[in-house]
Each structure stands twice: as C-alpha cells, then as structure tokens.
C-alpha cells in the first residue's frame, strides 16, 4: 500500500541504464518516500534490476511488465495498481539510432518514433485523466539535449526528442491547470549499455547506400569525435539518477532540467541567435575545422570537471 506519505512512481524501461538506476535509487530512498513500480517490456531481462534493487525488492520496489508500444499492456499494468494510482510517471523507455540518413530505413525510423515518441504519448494518455481527477501528479520525461539542439548523424533520434519536447511543452500548460507538474530531464552524453550498443551497431553499419565522402565523414570524423565527447563530457547513470531524484523531490520542479552543466553553452547558442547561424557555424567548425580546438576545449572542460565535479543548480 502506498500510504499518504509515500508516492507511487511508475518507471518505464527499467531493464538497464537510466531506468534501472532511477528505479533502484528511488526504492532505496532513505526517507522511504516512494513505492516504485519498475516496468520493462521483457520480464526475462529483470535480473540486473533485481540485483540492483537488493533488499528493496518486493518491499518498496515491484517489477511489472509494460510495453510502451502497446496500449493494452499499459492499461493492464496501470489497472493492476491500487486505485490505478500513479503519483509520478517516469517515462524512460527509448531506442537510439545514428548514421547517414540514406542508410536508414523508414520502417526503422517509424519503430524508433513508436517507442521514443508514441510510447510517451500512450503512457500520458493512460495516466493523465486520473491525475487530473486527483488534481496532483508529476510527469517526468527522459528527453535529451538533442531535443533542444540537433546533432550530426542523429537526425531521426533528435527529431524524436524534438517531438517529445514539443508534446510536453504544450501539455505542461494544460496540466498545470490541474496542479500536475511536467519535467523534461535532458542528459547530454551518458555512459550506458544503451549508448555502447548504439555505437557498436554504428561501427558495423552497412554504409553502401551512401556516398563515399559521407561514409568517410561518419567513420573517420563523427565516430572518433563522438567517442572523445563521451570520454570527456559523459556522465554516469548515477549522476543522471541523482539529478532526476532532485527533480522529483523539488518543491517546484522545472519544465526543463539539463543534467550536464558542461553542455549548457551548447544549447545556449541556439537562444543567442534566432537566425540559427551561430549554432550551425559553431558545430560545423567544431566537427570539420578545428580538431585541435576541439581537443583543447574538451581537455579544459575535463580538468574543470575533475576539480569541481560540477553539478547543475536546481
């Protein structure tokens, strides 16, 4: 039973990565503020979560099946909860995709949108009416800095996160009228299995559908550049999880929260120049022109990180 003091949190995509870490962290909350319903599409993959949950398993954390791509599955999961009560939704299920556009099938893109965008829409559609009725709730969405600023060879993934941001930004206004909070958590690069898998797939990718120069840019410029950015600026799942916990427990949670302070200048460029020339130019130069400038910048940021272990203010 979730008593008045404890809030029930439904987390999706908990078989690995950020979803797993967030579910386990909330379940182990020292103040026992949460009852966690940790969900995943395939319960056969529950092992790592059970391990991470430890003693909290079947006490403050229960594992349920939920496929964000299936309305019936979502309804069944929510129906199984006492009074269908979800105080906090953490929508985290997602898939990645990188590479030249010509090498990606429309079917794969639709599949990505079905999870990254429509997955969120289906969840919100299911829990929002009850939240409105109770005049309380918090919808927390794992977005990405790529939902603010597009990045080379991340065209479709970025588009899905832009869709998520537009959806939440619009909905937040209506939700507020019913005392429901909305927060987009926007990590930069995070070192997880998810990212590792995306990059592994990229290295093996069949690039025969694109021209030689694009293939070369992807292999010889983008992939090494990405690795550099990850090793210099990448956050751990633990860091992102702590930031998410802060957002969930905040008295007045923000609509947007970037977890990585080092990334804020990148997104600030966009607001600094309404014509869009500044970010376009900066990214172009960073990637194609100034390898040494990039290396120097990353080096400086890395040392700042080490000395300060910067955390964004909430």
UniProtKB/TrEMBL annotation:
Gene responsible for this protein: RDH8
Binding-site list for NADP(+): 13-41, 67, 161
Name assigned to this protein: Retinol dehydrogenase
Record carries keyword Nucleotide-binding: no
Residue positions binding substrate: 144
Family assignment from sequence similarity: Belongs to the short-chain dehydrogenases/reductases (SDR) family.
Record-level GO cellular component terms: cytosol; membrane
One Pfam match: adh_short
Function description: Retinol dehydrogenase with a clear preference for NADP. Converts all-trans-retinal to all-trans-retinol. May play a role in the regeneration of visual pigment at high light intensity.
């Amino acid at each position: 039973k979730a008593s008045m003091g404890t809030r029930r949190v439904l987390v999706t995509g908990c078989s690995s990565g950020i979803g797993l870490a967030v579910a386990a962290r909330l379940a182990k909350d020292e103040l026992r503020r949460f009852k966690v319903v940790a969900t995943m599409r395939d319960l056969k993959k529950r092992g790592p979560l059970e391990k991470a949950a430890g003693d909290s398993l079947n006490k403050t954390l229960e594992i349920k099946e939920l496929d964000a791509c299936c309305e019936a599955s979502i309804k069944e999961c929510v129906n199984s909860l006492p009074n269908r009560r979800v105080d906090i939704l953490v929508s985290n299920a997602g898939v990645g995709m990188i590479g030249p556009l010509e090498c990606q099938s429309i079917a794969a893109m639709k599949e990505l949108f079905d999870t990254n965008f429509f997955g969120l829409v289906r969840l919100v559609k299911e829990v929002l009416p009850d939240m409105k009725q109770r005049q309380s709730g918090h919808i927390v969405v794992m977005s990405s800095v790529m939902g603010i600023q597009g990045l080379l060879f991340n065209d479709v993934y970025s588009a899905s996160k832009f869709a998520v941001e537009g959806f939440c930004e619009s909905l937040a206004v209506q939700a507020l009228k019913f005392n429901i909070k909305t927060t987009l958590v926007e990590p930069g690069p995070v070192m997880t299995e998810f990212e590792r898998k995306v990059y592994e797939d990229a290295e093996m990718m069949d690039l025969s559908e694109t021209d030689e120069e694009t293939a070369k840019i992807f292999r010889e410029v983008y992939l090494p550049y990405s690795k550099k950015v990850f090793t210099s600026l990448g956050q751990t799942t633990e860091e992102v999880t702590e930031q998410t916990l802060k957002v969930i427990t905040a008295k007045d949670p923000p609509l947007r929260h970037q977890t990585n302070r080092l990334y804020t200048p990148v997104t600030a460029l966009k607001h600094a120049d309404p014509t869009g020339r500044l970010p376009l130019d900066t990214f172009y130069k960073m990637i194609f022109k100034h390898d040494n400038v990039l290396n120097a910048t990353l080096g400086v940021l890395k040392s700042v990180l080490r000395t300060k272990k910067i955390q964004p203010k909430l």
